[in-house]
Amino acid sequence: MALSLYYLDLRNNDRLFSDTEGTWLAGDRNAARTEAFSALIDYAREVTPTVMRRLAVEVGDENSTS
Questions:
Q1: How many domains does the chain have?
Q2: What are the residue boundaries of the DUF6894 domain, all occurrences included (predicted)?
Q3: What pTM value is reported for the model?
Q4: pLDDT by residue for the chain (66 residues), tens digit each?
């Protein structure tokens, strides 16, 4: 299976944390979505729960933006 480079940018409220390195994944965008959900869950566990937050991950590949 071919590898594709995906960028998983994280949004925390209005702040964007751009993934400048990317992640090589086997499979299609569904593999990237699975990785994005995993990254989002890991990040959500690390942030302070007492502050209201809107978290999101934007998935893009080498041919597109999020």
A1: 1
A2: 5-64
A3: 0.73
A4: 789 999 999 988 888 999 999 999 998 888 888 999 898 888 888 876 767 778 888 888 887 754
Decide: 8 and 40 in contact? Cβ < 8 Å: no
- Let me know if residue 66 belongs to a domain: no
Containing structural domain, residue 16: 3-61
DSSP characters over the chain:
--EEEEEEEEEETTEEE--SS-EEEESSHHHHHHHHHHHHHHHHHHS-TTS---EEEEEEETTS--
Q: How far, in Å, are 19, 45, 50 from residue 8 at the CA level?
A: 6, 17, 25
Query: 């597109």: which residue's tokens?
Result: 64
